[in-house]
Structure formats: C-alpha cells, structure tokens
Amino acid sequence: MSVGMQFLTDANGEKIAAVIPMDEYEELLEDLNDLAMVAERRHEPKVSLEEVERRLKADGLLPG
Questions:
Q1: What CA–CA distance (Å, rounded) separates 56 from 64?
Q2: DSSP annotation string for 1-46
Q3: What is the value of pTM for the model shown?
Q4: Span 1-11, pLDDT tens digits
Q5: Residue 53 in contact with residue 62, Cβ under 8 Å?
Q6: Cβ-based neighbours of 57, under 8 Å, separated by 6 or more
Q7: How far apart are CA 4 and CA 54, in angstroms?
Q8: Cα(28)–Cα(5) distance, rounded to whole angstroms?
Q9: How large a percentage of the chain has pLDDT more than 90?
C-alpha cells in the first residue's frame, strides 16, 4: 500500500474512496493507457524482432 494513500469513509466507517498522491495517479493513468493500446492492437499481425531491427536501421534509428 502506498505511504501517502488515505481513505474516505462513510458514517458507518466503510471505505468509500481512496486518495492517492498525484504522481501515483498519473502513473496509474499511464499504465491504463498502455493496457488500452495493447488491447486495441491485439489482433494486428505480429512482427519479428529481426524485422523491427531492420526497419529501425533503415530509418536511421539504430546503428547499421
């Protein structure tokens, strides 16, 4: 559990919300976005590592 995490409770003491530090919230949003992109692209054809390296070298993004 996060050190900075706090909980809001109702009149019965039941947890109803969590308060987390902003940096942790932003990290969670980034992770959620990454997972959404993976799910969106799951049916795309696979590309081998060798092909990715070839394309990066052709684009000048990796040393040849």
A1: 9
A2: --TT-EEEE-TTS-EEEEE--HHHHHHHHHHHHHHHHHHHTTTSPP
A3: 0.60
A4: 567 899 999 99
A5: yes
A6: 63, 64
A7: 45
A8: 14
A9: 92
> Which of 39, 37, 42, 4 lies closest to 20, judged by CA?
4
Q: Length of the chain in residues, anyone?
A: 64
Residues 6 or more apart in contact with residue 17 via CB below 8 angstroms: 7, 8
- Asked if residues 15 and 8 have their Cβ atoms less than 8 Å apart, the reply is yes
Triad 3, 8, 4: Cα angle to 5°:
15
Please tell me what DSSP assigns to residue 62: S
Instruction: Give the N- to C-terminal CA distance of the chain in Å, as an integer.
Output: 46
